[in-house]
Amino acid sequence: MNDQEEAPGLGLLAGTVSYGLKRAYLRVIRDLEAALLPHGFTPPLLAALAIVAANPGIAPARLAAAMGHGRSRAAPLLDRLEAQHLLERRGGADRRSLGLWATGEGEATLHRLRPLVLAHERRVTADLSAPERRAMAASLERLAGGGEGDAS
Question: Per-residue pLDDT for 151 more than 90?
Answer without folding.
Answer: no
